[in-house]
TrEMBL record:
Protein name per UniProt: Uncharacterized protein
Species this protein is from: Halopiger aswanensis
Length: 93
């Protein structure tokens, strides 16, 4: 059975120690910060960057984007991007 976007988001949340959401919602800044940490993208956790900056950093780190330009990640992750993140996080995701 194919995983839904909501399933993928919750698997990623579990993998980075965040709480699951009963409905499919985009990641909060705090969840994005945890994902950045898990994939090795360095951010200032005392002053979180924008969501688009963190999404771009995650996508760049997992090899989906060629750089961490926030202009390339102004929308929530797409299913293929969530699959790449989950794969990067390994068996926990």
């Amino acid at each position: 059975m194919t995983k839904t976007v909501g399933d993928l988001r919750n698997e990623i949340r579990r993998a980075v120690g965040r709480f699951e959401r009963p409905e499919s919602t985009a990641f909060t800044k705090e969840s994005l910060a945890a994902i950045c940490d898990a994939v090795g993208y360095d951010i200032d956790t005392s002053d979180l960057p924008s969501k688009s900056r963190m999404r771009a950093g995650v996508l760049w780190t997992v090899g989906v984007l060629e750089d961490d330009d926030p202009g390339e990640a102004e929308r929530p992750f797409r299913k293929s991007e969530l699959e790449a993140i989950a794969a990067e996080l390994g068996d926990d995701a």
